[in-house]
């Protein structure tokens, strides 16, 4: 049995706006600490305030330098001190891995920074994706045609510790439909769809891949097709791929 | 617009069948559209008499009044020459006794019934076949619409709408896509109505065969064509009616066969016979984009198959519905399968499959996402496909470089994050044209290789058996590759078109290979 994937907790839905002066788009972010601010020298206090205001998106070091108008050296000194004291943390932005992004240590990074649930330390967790795909496929094989809800319930019943959300399962099923491993269909409510209410979107096995009539001949996947002409330097009669294909070495 | 390699393939076909001079004239017509004779003579730089002869070979009609007659080349019909063996195989499976007759028509383009009789009797030396038997076999072909009467020999068509003299006639034999509207109009003018096209030969005709039958051998055939054209303004006698193979019907048959075979691999155990019966019971061909069979017909065919008689009506109906055969309110007893939809799906599958083979699984996933039509932003592609960012970026670049997808830069405004711009991607609208051009190019290359093998055989410098084997493999691959050509070009636009005069070629052997 594969180990459960490293799934990051999903940020709960927004609560009603609290009285505390926190950024409006992230109401769950803890209020800025006066105790911390009072203990910081002025330059570090300014840096901390600005990073705090960037919320769970964090702040790129270059943006921070422009905003605080500090030199690179003094900014890096301040940030290093704040990171060492556990007030700030450096996070990896999955889309711009080379960028240094700072964030309040108490705040959980937004999914667009971490890359969402399938990312671990800024890298795509391919093992986790493969594991959940396998589980979904097992459920589809067992059920025939199933809605994301049915697959989710099946996965949970088989392994209650797995902890996948319905959204994660839905994402994976959609990707598998793009890969043609599965086929997305609207249920007719009859035959193989009898377990699914008519009209609901469900998934079933995609069947053996078809097509590929063009690939049976050398020209089908030839990288030099654009340079090939009957009387050119590259032509079918001088073609190495054709020679190999027809085993013309007798 | 005919793709570049489509023209090269068509010219190669004509060159192989009729020689380089005819190919030269054909290429000129394919590239430049409708042209009058003096213009063709000027462009191909050949003596006028020679050009006239080549046109005669191509059109099997007298070029009566050169200054007012335009010639066009029908690209589809040139390509149909590639698949005569398949047409022959269709008739062999359906009406085997009429195979010789359809072969005669395919080889000679258009023939009168007398010519066909003479040809058939001369082929069967032992005298076991008589005129009456040939007439019966021929009528079977007409009844099944495999052959039709040729359109009016001199369609009068005036594209400018000017009040020209009635003697000003435009003759159209072959056309290119650029002149589609002109071609359509002219062909519509020339086309006979259905009862005219498929009226059988009555008994009474047997009495009026006093004229000596015209020769059908190569050179004399042209002479025969002149004679027919001299009578243009008079009513053509009944026994002078020219017949030809009805390509439209053949393409429809091949389309059905393709769809039926393609779906077979996806069928569940026990449902094959229902699917087969559905296609066997399909008799109507009013609409070439769908196949319709009555439930009674399906039941009848099913009853003849092993295990078919035991199936209940409910079972059959359920399987047919799962196979996307629909019933209409007009006729709840008949099931219709949408061939056009299936052909479209198959086209997509072919292109996607090639993308997968060339660029890998990730490219396949991304391409399928982008082929849905709406532009998708890079980050959204990463999120939707759940693929690694680096892989997505490199794949997008490769697909973009090879003209499969297109990109546009958008300026975004997400303050504080530094993302000032992002890119949206979508599949290029031209990727199909590119794919089709490659299909023609590949077919041309296969043909060139077949010819190369023939040359090697003549030279005798290599092991004869091995070269022959290679040649057969290539011929077989060409026949298979033609399925792709038909899928992308032949099936969607089935047009009524004119014939070409053909030299005698042995299509039978190719038909055997294809069936095997």
TrEMBL record, chain A:
Q: Where is the composition biased (Pro residues)?
A: 1-15
Q: Does the keyword Nucleus apply?
A: yes
Listed transmembrane segments: none
Asked whether the keyword ATP-binding is assigned, the reply is no
A GO BP entry = transcription by RNA polymerase III
Q: Which Pfam families match?
A: RNA_pol_Rpc34
Kindly state one GO CC term assigned in the UniProt record: RNA polymerase III complex
Q: Where in the cell is it found?
A: Nucleus
| InterPro entries associated with the record | RNA_pol_Rpc34, RNA_pol_Rpc34-like, WH-like_DNA-bd_sf, WH_DNA-bd_sf
State the SUPFAM superfamilies in the record. Answer: Winged helix' DNA-binding domain (SSF46785)
Protein species of origin? Lolium multiflorum (Italian ryegrass)
Similarity field:
Belongs to the eukaryotic RPC34/RPC39 RNA polymerase subunit family.
Protein name (record): DNA-directed RNA polymerase III subunit RPC6
Which controlled-vocabulary keywords does the entry list?
DNA-directed RNA polymerase, Nucleus, Transcription
Q: Which residues form a coiled coil?
A: none
Q: Where is this region: Disordered?
A: 1-23
TrEMBL record, chain B:
Family membership: Belongs to the eukaryotic RPC3/POLR3C RNA polymerase subunit family.
Listed name of the protein: DNA-directed RNA polymerase III subunit RPC3
Provide an example Pfam family for this protein: HTH_9
Predominant place of localization = nucleus
What GO molecular-function term can you cite, just one? single-stranded DNA binding
Any one annotated GO CC term: RNA polymerase III complex
Q: Which residues form the DNA-directed RNA polymerase III subunit RPC3 winged-helix domain?
A: 351-410
Compartments it resides in: Nucleus
Domain RNA polymerase III subunit RPC82-related helix-turn-helix: start-end pairs? 9-63
Q: Outline what the protein does.
A: DNA-dependent RNA polymerase catalyzes the transcription of DNA into RNA using the four ribonucleoside triphosphates as substrates. Specific core component of RNA polymerase III which synthesizes small RNAs, such as 5S rRNA and tRNAs.
> How is the subunit organization of this protein annotated in UniProt?
Component of the RNA polymerase III (Pol III) complex consisting of 17 subunits.
Task: Tell me which UniProt keywords the record has, alphabetically.
Answer: DNA-directed RNA polymerase, Nucleus, Transcription
Q: Where on the tree of life does the source sit, at the highest rank?
A: Eukaryota
Segments forming domain RNA polymerase III Rpc82 C -terminal: 137-327
Task: Tell me the Gene Ontology biological-process terms attached to this UniProt entry.
Answer: DNA-templated transcription
């Amino acid at each position: 049995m594969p180990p459960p994937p490293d799934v990051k907790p999903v940020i709960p839905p927004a609560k009603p706006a609290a009285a505390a002066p926190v950024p409006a788009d992230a109401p769950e972010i803890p209020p800025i600490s006066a105790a911390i601010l009072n203990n910081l020298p002025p330059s570090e206090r300014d840096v901390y305030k600005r990073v705090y205001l960037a919320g769970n998106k964090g702040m790129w070091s270059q943006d921070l330098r422009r905003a605080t108008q500090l030199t690179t050296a003094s900014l890096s000194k301040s940030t290093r001190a704040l990171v060492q004291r556990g007030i700030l943390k450096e996070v990896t932005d999955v889309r711009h891995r080379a960028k240094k992004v700072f964030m309040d240590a108490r705040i959980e990074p937004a999914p667009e920074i971490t890359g969402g649930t399938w990312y671990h330390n800024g890298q795509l967790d391919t093992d986790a994706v493969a594991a959940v795909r396998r589980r979904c496929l097992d459920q589809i094989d067992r059920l025939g045609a199933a809605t994301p809800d049915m697959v989710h319930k099946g996965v949970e019943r088989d392994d209650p510790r797995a902890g996948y959300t319905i959204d994660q399962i839905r994402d994976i099923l959609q990707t598998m439909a793009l890969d043609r491993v599965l086929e997305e269909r609207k249920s007719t409510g009859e035959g193989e769809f009898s377990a699914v209410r008519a009209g609901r979107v469900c998934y079933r096995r995609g069947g053996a891949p078809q097509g590929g009539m063009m690939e049976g001949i050398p020209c089908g996947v030839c990288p030099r097709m654009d340079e090939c002409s009957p009387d050119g330097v590259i032509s079918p009669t001088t073609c190495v791929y054709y020679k190999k294909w027809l085993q013309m070495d007798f | 617009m005919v793709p570049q390699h489509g023209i090269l393939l068509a010219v190669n076909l004509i060159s192989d069948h009729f020689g380089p001079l005819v190919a030269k004239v054909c290429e000129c017509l394919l590239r430049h559209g409708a042209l009058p004779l003096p213009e063709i003579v000027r462009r191909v730089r050949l003596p006028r008499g020679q050009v006239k002869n080549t046109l005669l070979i191509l059109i099997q009609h007298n070029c009566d009044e050169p200054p007012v007659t335009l010639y066009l080349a029908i690209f589809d019909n040139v390509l149909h020459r590639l698949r005569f063996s398949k047409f022959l195989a269709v008739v062999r499976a359906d009406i085997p006794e009429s195979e010789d007759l359809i072969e005669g028509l395919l080889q000679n383009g258009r023939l009168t019934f007398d010519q066909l009789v003479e040809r058939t009797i001369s082929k069967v030396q032992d005298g076991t076949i008589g005129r009456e038997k040939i007439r019966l076999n021929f009528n079977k072909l007409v009844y099944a619409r495999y052959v039709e009467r040729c359109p009016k020999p001199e369609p009068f068509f005036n594209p400018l709408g000017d009040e020209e003299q009635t003697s000003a006639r435009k003759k159209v034999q072959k056309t290119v896509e650029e002149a589609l509207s002109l071609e359509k109009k002219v062909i519509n003018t020339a086309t006979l109505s259905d009862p005219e096209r498929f009226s059988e030969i009555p008994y009474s005709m047997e009495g009026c065969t006093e004229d000596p039958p015209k020769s059908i051998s190569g050179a004399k055939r042209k002479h025969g064509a002149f004679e027919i054209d001299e009578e243009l303004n008079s009513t053509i006698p009944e026994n002078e009616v020219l017949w030809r193979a009805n390509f439209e019907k053949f393409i429809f048959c091949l389309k059905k066969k393709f769809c039926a075979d393609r779906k077979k691999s996806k069928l569940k155990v026990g449902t094959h016979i229902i699917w087969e019966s559905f296609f066997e019971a399909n008799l109507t061909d009013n609409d070439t984009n769908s196949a319709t069979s009555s439930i009674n017909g399906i039941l009848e065919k099913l009853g003849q198959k092993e295990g078919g008689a035991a199936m209940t009506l409910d079972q059959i109906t359920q399987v047919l519905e799962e196979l996307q055969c629909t019933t209409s309110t007009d006729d709840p007893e008949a099931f219709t399968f949408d061939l056009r939809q299936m052909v479209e799906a198959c086209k997509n599958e072919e292109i996607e499959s090639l993308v997968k083979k060339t660029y890998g699984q990730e490219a396949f996933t991304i391409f399928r996402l982008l082929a849905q039509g709406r532009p998708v932003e890079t980050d959204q592609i990463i999120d939707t496909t759940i693929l690694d960012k680096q892989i997505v970026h490199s794949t997008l670049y490769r697909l973009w470089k090879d003209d499969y997808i297109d990109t546009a830069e958008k300026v975004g405004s997400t303050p504080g994050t530094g993302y000032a711009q992002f890119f949206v991607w979508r599949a290029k609208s031209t990727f199909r044209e590119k794919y089709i051009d490659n299909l023609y190019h590949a077919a041309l290359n296969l043909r060139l290789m077949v010819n190369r093998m023939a040359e090697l055989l003549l030279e005798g410098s290599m092991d004869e058996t091995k070269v022959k084997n290679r040649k057969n493999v290539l011929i077989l691959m060409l026949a298979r590759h033609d399925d792709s050509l038909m899928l992308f070009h032949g099936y969607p636009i089935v047009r009524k078109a004119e014939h070409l005069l053909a030299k005698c070629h042995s299509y039978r052997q190719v038909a055997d290979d294809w069936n095997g």
